[in-house]
Amino acid sequence: MSVTPRVLTVTLNPALDLTVQAGGWQRGEVNAAQGAQQDAGGKGVNVASILADWGAPVAATGLLGHDNAAPFETLFRDKGVSDEFVRVPGATRVGLKIVDPTRGDTTDLNLPGLTVSARALAHLQATLRSQPAGVEVVALCGSLPPGVHASFYAEEVARLREQGRFVALDTSGEALRAALTADTLPQLIKPNIHELEAALGHPLTTDATVLAAARELIRRGAELVAVSQGERGALLVTAREGVFARPPRVTVQSTVGAGDAMVAGLISAHLDGLSLADAARRATSFSAGSITRLGAHLPPRAELDALAAQVQVEPAQPLTA
């Protein structure tokens, strides 16, 4: 018997991620690679994959090219994710991820994606409108492909919140700027520090300025703002409190999807009604656990529990003046 999803992820611009391991590679040179793998990806696809690993009932929708949909269909089938993607003509874009284990970093090369027709976009919007009441959370994730106006997420946030959904947003660029300046904000906003700076149009050089920016978004209607800052950790702010979560040290396989894992952790924490501190521990453990794997996958729960226990959570009174 099928289980009604509690979460719907939305990915307008998915990608087949080709991850190449090339230790010590040099720009402009002929480089030897040690291995490669291809994964169905895109931010919302990654969030759905990780939530499914955790055991949360999840569906995924968005716009998916007919020509190379098979890897996505296989992922959804293997993980029990309900596939509600709208198929469109053409091939979904490929994203190249060059992982250098010796330096512990990842270089991304992302193509723009398929140009979206008005008909396909209307079909997707109808899918969003027709979700059953059991879908509590809608996560709007990733970049917008050519043919979709920058205000798309901002408009959908207002409509989804009118339906009583809890809306999470993880995007960047003009789409994030439009969403943050709209009258109705998502309940959960998770930019990284660079995305938030670009959207607000000014640098956030101290903990105090990051905290002030997050509190302003809370004042304007958001319920949880999580600003990730890479290895340093993440700031999480609600109307009542703020915490800074510092991750444990792990052996990095790839940083691809670390932010998506944090979004998945925050959504699962919302579903379980966790406190802010416990939400910070879970989201940080998801992120730390995911970077020990290639692709958007969680380690076993016992390993996640051990990572969560190592997360340092501190009050977010400005740590640096």
How would you summarize this macromolecular structure in one to three sentences?
By secondary structure, the chain is of the alpha/beta class.
Task: Provide keyphrases for this structure.
321 residues, alpha/beta, 4-stranded mixed β-sheet, 10 helices, 15 strands
Write up this protein.
- Strands 1, 4, 5, 6, 9, 10, 11, 12, 13, 14 and 15 form an 11-stranded mixed beta sheet that branches. The protein has a 4-stranded mixed beta sheet with strand order 3-2-7-8.
- It is built from 10 helices and 15 strands.
- Helices cover 36% and strands 23% of the residues.
- Helix 4 (152-162) crosses helix 5.
- The radius of gyration is 19 Å and the shape is globular.
- The model has no long low-confidence stretch (mean pLDDT 94).
- The longest helix is centred in the last third of the chain and has 15 residues, at 258-272.
- With 321 residues, it is α/β, with parallel strands linked by helices.
Q: How is the secondary structure organized here?
A:
Elements: E1 7-11, E2 15-21, E3 35-41, H1 43-54, E4 58-65, H2 70-79, E5 82-83, E6 86-88, E7 94-100, E8 105-110, H3 118-129, E9 137-141, H4 152-162, E10 166-170, H5 173-180, E11 188-189, H6 193-200, H7 207-219, E12 224-228, E13 234-237, E14 242-246, H8 258-272, H9 276-290, H10 301-310, E15 312-315
Parallel strand pairs: 1-4, 1-9, 2-7, 4-5, 4-6, 9-10, 10-11, 11-12
Antiparallel strand pairs: 2-3, 7-8, 12-13, 13-14, 14-15
Helix pairs in contact: 1-8, 4-5, 5-6, 8-9, 9-10
